[in-house]
Amino acid sequence: MSDADTMLAEVLDGNADAATRGRLAELMRRDATVRERFLGQVAIAGALRSRHQPAQRLAALRERTLATLVDGGSLARTRRRVLERLPPRPEPRRRRWWWWIPLGLCIAAAAVVLVLRNPTSPLQPNDTSLHTPPWNGTGSGLRGDYYGDHIFTRLAGSRVDPQIHFDWPGSPIDTMPADHFTVRWSGKVQPRVSGTYTFIIRADDRVRLWIAGRLLIDTWDRPDISDQYGEITLEGRQRYDLQIEYCDNEHAGEIAWWWQAAGQAKEIVPTSQLYPP
Amino acid sequence: MDNLDPMLDALVVAEIRSGNRHAYGMLIDRYQMRLRATVSAYLLHAEEIEEFTHEAFVQAFVLLNQFDHTQPFYPWLRTIAMNALRLEAHTCDATTAHAGDYLRQVLLERALDQTQDERSDARVQALDLCLRTLPSDASELLTDKYQSDHSISELAARHRTSEGELQNRLLRLRDRLRECIGKRLTAELG
After folding, report:
1. Is B123 domain-assigned?
2. Could you tell me the residue range of the domain that residue B145 belongs to?
3. What's this model's pTM, rounded to 2 decimal places?
4. In angstroms, rounded to a whole number, what is the distance separating the alpha carbons of residues B25 and A67?
5. Of residues A28, A48, A65, nearest to B28 (C-beta)
6. Most confident listed range (A118-122, A133-137, A238-242)
7. In terms of domains, do B105 and B11 share one?
8. Does a structural domain hold residue B170?
9. CATH code for the domain in which residue B154 is found
10. Which of A54, A120, A131, B141 has its CA 20 to 30 A from that of B64?
11. In whole angstroms, what separates CA A213 from the centre of its chain?
């Protein structure tokens, strides 16, 4: 047996160590004949294995699949569990944010009184800046780069999206397929006020969210269509780098992106707070 | 591949759609081996083949309302499995993958070739015919190897030979079957 044959046999018979797999990989990279032989051998071994499956193993897969289908859960949840191969995730803990409302109102009222009593304060009664909401930005949205593959290589088009709230029954843009596409949104997000923000994304199928360089949400390896939560503390009116990557596998594509903070109800992140790069 | 009446599939699907989920077991029984054979041409590990087969059946069930019952069930099921394999193939790049990943990726990339899924069925059909041409001791060895999950050392002891010799024999047997299948497929196409 040649060296290549020995390695091939060990890999196919399931007793090759990492070094052997590495040497075979190297050989396959260099020699197309070895590569072809490997492909052929795997196909035959696979067909043989399938043909010789014992009846109890076939029955076990049938029972396991049926049990997945009839466990009383919704189909969508079943699919997620199968894909994750994990037990269902607990619901996120609800924050008792409403405790902060009376306390916040007291602090705000005291602050206003103190500022207005100070004669050197720029915020005297004739100054109207206090009454104009300074926290609304002037943004126009995020840049969306749309790719016709799963690995962000075949750029099909770019545009500015005012919000991330889509439910595509087909293709998002004409020049790309209805399935198996990716989108990368980039730009900046500007919080209205300082505080801890919870960002929420619901996406079918995979999504990643970075804010200020921090990966807050990541379902890339384990697609999950339930709401995903990520928290970060941000300064009001400061603009932070933002990137969202989304991958649609099959069927309709869907993604929605919300935020919420103390005193700020959950809402789709508004256009005014989003800026293209 | 098989002579099952496609009308029967349509009846089973109608039964499932009417709420009898257990009827899906009939479709699993009917197509499981065939789907395993297709999937296993693109994956190296038995556990992964098991998972992909299972997931394809679950996904097919979830999408059953989209199935056109005037068409045969298996090609639709196979498309679901092949799409899952293609998605897997897209997740990493063989040119940068290392060792074990590289072997896996080389196999998965073949799923991107659309003509492969048609061939996988023909390959399995040809395999059945080729297996009949093997001598009985060779058939026994293959059955032992692929049915029982014995390790190479256990098999070597059982067949009173060395591990190296046994691995060599299995390799040659697979080569022989590969050659036989190739000839049959070429003859069919010719």
Report:
1. no
2. 133-190
3. 0.54
4. 10
5. A65
6. A238-242
7. yes
8. yes
9. 1.10.10
10. A54
11. 15
